[in-house]
């Protein structure tokens, strides 16, 4: 906790789905998933303070306003704070400031990260000491990706993506991320996959076994070969330019490339940190994405810092 018990600072990572197998549409509007989540060192930071009323403000690292993120009651971080406050009554309103590096509507679970960060920060600020499994259950109510943002590392996700079991790998992966010009909304991408499947039956990615044995082998070439995402065809169908970005990353020397989650961020796996820096420079020069970042993982989930 920084300075006094009046303020808590939390850091929370973005995710990439190394493997994302999507089942058919369920009656409740969700799809069963089998996925391998992987947290990378691209972080949102939250500062949460006691205040007279609940508020959420989101800025970029340069303190500029961030487009596309709701400021009020619809912000996932504010929803998380109010959800926790409702269950644990000895609490007060909070002002949440988010410094956002995770791309908005980018397929890297940015909103989910902020919700997880707010849960951890409010729990510390209010001294509620919520057991970890209870916090994970509240996280799952807020969104399918929120439990993983709490936990981080590498994990297999099943159910809606909210049921997690850790993957014990020490293998460090080096990535180049291509950020899209425009976001994609997650429900639209799942809907497009349903439409493509009704019209044709496109190929489906295999289960997680190949990816898990590739991670256990510590062979980055095998991990690259095992990357896969059932939502990729749907994201490309909605944003055809992504095909060119994927080709450009591979031509720049990446070992493998995928659309991250529901997109449009593209994630390129590279042989080493140096290779990632080289691929990033070359990919940036192709003009096929809005901007380019390097990242590596796995990293832990939402944590109090400072
Ligand atoms: C694409 C992924 O990022 C992969 O990890 C996640 O599945 C998305 O997780 P999320 O953004 O936390 O999604 P939620 O907020 O739970 O759901 C938003 C919408 O996405 C669709 N959705 C989400 C998760 C899931 N397993 N099946 C779905 O069909 C549904 O239309 C749902 O209404
Ligand atoms: N704190 C937040 N940060 C970003 N978006 C938020 C937040 N709260 C609510 N939203 C809304 O959620 C929508 C999805 O944004 P988000 O950045 O979480 O997408 P995403 O990373 O593609 O999600 P996922 O990868 O979990 O499917 C946005 O349209 C935005 O309006």
Automatic annotation (TrEMBL):
Pfam families in UniProt = GHMP_kinases_C, GHMP_kinases_N
Q: What is the top EC class of this enzyme, as a single word?
A: transferase
Where does this protein hold ATP? 103-113
By sequence similarity, the record places it as follows: Belongs to the GHMP kinase family. IspE subfamily.
Any single biological process term in GO: terpenoid biosynthetic process
The catalysed reaction is: 4-CDP-2-C-methyl-D-erythritol + ATP = 4-CDP-2-C-methyl-D-erythritol 2-phosphate + ADP + H(+)
Q: What is its EC number?
A: 2.7.1.148
On whether Transferase is a keyword of this UniProt record, the answer is yes
Organism for this UniProt entry: Nakamurella alba
Keyword ATP-binding attached: yes
Q: Which InterPro entries match?
A: GHMP_kinase_C_dom, GHMP_kinase_C_sf, GHMP_kinase_N_dom, IspE, Ribosomal_Su5_D2-typ_SF, Ribsml_uS5_D2-typ_fold_subgr
Q: Keywords for this entry?
A: ATP-binding, Isoprene biosynthesis, Kinase, Nucleotide-binding, Transferase
Query: Which residues catalyse the reaction?
Result: 15, 145
Q: In which pathway does it act?
A: Isoprenoid biosynthesis; isopentenyl diphosphate biosynthesis via DXP pathway; isopentenyl diphosphate from 1-deoxy-D-xylulose 5-phosphate: step 3/6
Per UniProt, residues of the GHMP kinase C-terminal domain are: 211-284
* Name of the featured protein: 4-diphosphocytidyl-2-C-methyl-D-erythritol kinase
Q: Which residues form the GHMP kinase N-terminal domain?
A: 75-153
Superkingdom of this protein's organism: Bacteria
Q: Which GO terms describe its molecular function?
A: 4-(cytidine 5'-diphospho)-2-C-methyl-D-erythritol kinase activity; ATP binding
HAMAP family registered for this protein in UniProt: IspE
Query: What PANTHER family is this protein classified in?
Result: 4-DIPHOSPHOCYTIDYL-2-C-METHYL-D-ERYTHRITOL KINASE, CHLOROPLASTIC
Role this protein plays: Catalyzes the phosphorylation of the position 2 hydroxy group of 4-diphosphocytidyl-2C-methyl-D-erythritol.
């Amino acid at each position: 906790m920084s300075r006094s018990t009046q303020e808590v600072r939390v850091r929370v990572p973005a995710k990439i789905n190394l493997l994302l197998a999507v089942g058919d549409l369920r009656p409740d509007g969700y799809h069963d998933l089998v996925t391998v989540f992987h947290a990378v060192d691209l972080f949102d930071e939250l500062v949460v303070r006691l205040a007279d009323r609940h508020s959420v403000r989101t800025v970029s690292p340069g303190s500029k306003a961030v487009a596309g993120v709701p400021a009020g009651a619809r912000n996932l971080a504010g929803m998380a704070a109010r959800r926790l406050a409702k269950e644990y009554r000895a609490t007060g309103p909070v002002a949440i400031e988010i410094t956002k590096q995770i791309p908005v509507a980018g397929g890297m679970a940015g909103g989910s990260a902020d919700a997880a960060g707010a849960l951890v920060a409010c729990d510390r600020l209010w001294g509620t000491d919520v057991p970890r499994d209870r916090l994970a259950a509240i996280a799952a109510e807020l969104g399918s990706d929120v439990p993983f943002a709490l936990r981080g590392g590498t994990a297999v996700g099943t159910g809606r993506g909210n049921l997690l079991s850790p993957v014990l790998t020490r293998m460090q992966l080096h990535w180049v991320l291509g950020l899209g010009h425009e976001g994609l909304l997650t429900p639209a991408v799942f809907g497009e996959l349903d439409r493509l499947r009704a019209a044709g039956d496109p190929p489906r990615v295999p289960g997680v076994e190949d990816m898990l044995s590739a991670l256990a082998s510590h062979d980055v070439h095998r991990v690259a070969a095992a990357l896969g995402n059932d939502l990729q065809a749907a994201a490309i169908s909605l944003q055809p330019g992504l095909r060119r970005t994927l080709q450009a990353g591979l031509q720049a020397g990446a070992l493998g490339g995928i659309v991250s989650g529901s997109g449009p961020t593209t994630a390129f796996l590279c042989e080493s940190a140096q290779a990632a820096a080289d691929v990033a420079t070359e990919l940036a020069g192709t003009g096929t994405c809005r901007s380019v970042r390097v990242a590596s993982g796995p990293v832990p989930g939402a944590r109090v810092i400072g």
